[in-house]
Structures are given as structure tokens and as C-alpha cells.
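Lab notebook, bench 4. The sequencing result for the construct came back, and we need a structural model before the next group meeting so we can plan mutations. Quick request posted to the team channel:

Model the 3D structure of this chain.
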Amino acid sequence: MKKGIKFYIALWGAKIGTVILKLFKRNATFFPGKFAIKICPDFIGKINKPKTIVAVTGTNGKTTVCNMIEDILKDNNYIFIDNKYGSNIDAGVATTLLSGVNFWGKCKRDLAILEVDERSAPKIYPYMTPTYLVCTNLFRDSLMRNAHTEFISEILTKYIPKDTTLILNGDDLIASNIAPENKRIYFGIDRLETDSEKCENIARDIIVCPKCNSKLVYDYVRYNHIGKAHCPNCDFRSPDIDYLVTNLDLQNMKMHIKNNNEEETYDLISDNIINIYNILTVITVLKQLNLTNIQINESLKKQKIVDTRYSEEIVNGKKIITHLSKGMNPIACSRVFDYVRKYKGNKAVILLLDDLHEEANGSENTAWQYDTDYEFLNDDSIKQLIIAGVRYLDDYVRVRIAGVDDKKIVHERNELSAVEKLNLNNVETIFILHDLYSMELKEAIKAKVELMVKNLEEK
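Done. Here's the predicted structure in C-alpha cell form:
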């Protein structure tokens, strides 16, 4: 593609802008790319790119997957560019590509790992052909932004380049069917003892066959539309899996993956099914990049889920767990609620699900709460539920509809004040479920709970 004067003005201007921003210790992960695209709208298409590009998209898990891929590659001395600390839309991708070329536009790196927002597909893929495009899953998300899974899957199918090899969640009947003409590699998990023939979730986004509109037959359901299904009247069905977890040994924290009649064993760093899928995704990608079982597993054992997503510690015999629960994302919240109810022992839960800032004008649509399985919080092992924050009344109404006993519930606007009513008697674990943009609040709440536990021991 011929570059032209606009491209070089964009390239040099963005490069100089990056240096200036860094001199003033400012974030240089978004603005340089935004500037470049403003000057040269097809900048992503014209800039020289690494030989191998791995793009990761999907509703949930893409950040965790990218972080783990990058950490394992670094541990094995790979050199690459990534947007780990930047935006996952077109401007962030442009900034990352800028970092991979010199002042004259010559490529300095052979590999790029890029997190890409699903809605940004029309602004990125017409100008860039990933070698591999990973889709972790496709679920309903913010209704006002993402509408429905069919809307997102159609966008991806329309804009994914035909020469890109797809790495897809074969247990997701929606994600596994995007861009059907592309070469594809599937990962998945064989039937588990906890799987069922009936779905206990409120939301299931594919019930009828997309080919003939017959009602699908689910061989088993893991959660929502994750599982294995087939159409009784045509050839539509879940795909054959290339990287299949044949044995999930949570007692010893191991999983066995079969590929091409060969089986390899990997260590698990989490017992949460969401993170197990993330780990499986990472392994599948790294195998395409020709890393060996030993390389992957030795590095994998050093990994942990980042503290902004999950953390746990024991204070005076009580476990305090923080867990990200994304507001406006019903499936992500439902998975967390399910994890909490199945966690061993008695617990107290502090729920901080705000989908807006207090100073924001207007209000987000709360319909997502009625797609979320708050019913999972109606469990005998949950002895107390503390609800606080901007959305405390909306959450209170929802948990009451879910049947949670009012005697278990504390609901107040002020988060720190609400936590003061935490009852530590007869609980072994305190869960703090927080939103993506409430990290400072989460730390303050955690510190307060730790102090309360210590004071309880002193008494």
C-alpha cells in the first residue's frame, strides 16, 4: 500500500508526540494513535506490521488471556509489541503498531499481541490481517452498546479478513460459528460431572438452530449457552475440538489436553471455570506459536490471576477474597455469583456493583440485572449480603426478587458505612465483589474488613 505524505506526517507527528508525552510522564498509549488516524485515516493499513499478529477478542476474558500470553512469552525470551497498557480500540492498536517501527517506518518486531474490542472490528480489520484471531466467547453485554450476540457476531463475520486463522471456543455455539469460511482451530472442555442437561441460567442466547430454526438439543449445558448441542433436523452441531481438555483434575490442579491423539498435562492456577477456559485459550495460542509443553507449563506455573481480577488472603483464620464482577455484564456477574455459592464453607458477601459514577448525568439501563443470576446469591451458605454504592437500591430490589431473605441483607448508599455492619460470626470467607472502575474503593473496603477481622480476634 502506497504510503504518501499524509502517512509520514502522521508517523513523525505521532512519534514526536510520544516522546513529548513521555517527557512529561503522561500516558502515551492512546493519543499518538488517535493523532495518526486523524491525519491519515488508513494509517493502520499503511504502517508496516509484524510478520505474526495475534489478535484477541470476545466478550469476557480477552484482557486476562492477553496478559497471560504476554507474560509466558516474556518468560521464554520472546520480543514483541502489545497494547497491554493501552486502549483496545483503533487508536490503541495504532499506538502499539507505532511502537513497533522506527522513525522511518521500518518494522522492529516480528510479533504483536493485540487485544481488540469486538465493536472496533470495522475500524481495524479492513486495514490489518491478523495471523490468528482468538475469540474467547460471545455473550450478551451492555445492551446499549452491544445490543445482542447476533449483532456482535455479524460484525465480526463481516470484517474478519478471509486469510486470518481463527482460534475459537468450540463450547460456545455462537463464537464457534463466526466467519465460517475461515480456517479455524477449536479449543474446549469435555463433559464435566457438574454439567447438566438443563440450563439453570436466565440467559441462553442460542436456543434454535441458525440454519433451519429447529429447537436445538443440548447434549449437556455448562452454563448459559456454553456446552454441546446439535440440531435434530439438519447438520448444525457443536464442532469437533482440536485442543480438548479430557480430564480436569481440580483436586491436584491439573488438566490433560488432547491434540492430534497426543495428550499433554498442564498445571492450573485457578479452579474457576472461567479462568480454566482462559488458560486453555492461552495454551492453544502458544502452541500455534510453536512453544513446547515444557516451555508453556514451566512459565504457566509462575502465573497468577492479576489482583485487579481476583485476590485472596487469610487474616486470623478468615479468608478475604476480592473478585471482579463487571456491571452491565450479566454473564460475568452470574459466573462470579455461581463461584461464590459453590465455594466451600459459610460466607458473607459485599456487593459493590456500580455501572455509573455518582457524578454522571442520566442513568444506565438496569435491564442487565434481570439477565443476571442473582438467584445464585440465594444460598444457605451465604449468611450475610451487604449491598452498597450508587446502585444499592436497584441491587436490593433484584436480590429480593431472587428470594434472598431480607434478614440477611444490609443495604446502604455509603460503602464504608455499610461494611461496618459486617457480621463475622459463623463465616469463614468474606467475598468483596467489585466493579471494574472501583479499584480504589475495593482496596479501602478490603483494608476495613481486615481491620475488623483483626479487632475481632483481639476481643
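Residues 306 and 339 are 17 Å apart (CA to CA).
Will bring this to the meeting.
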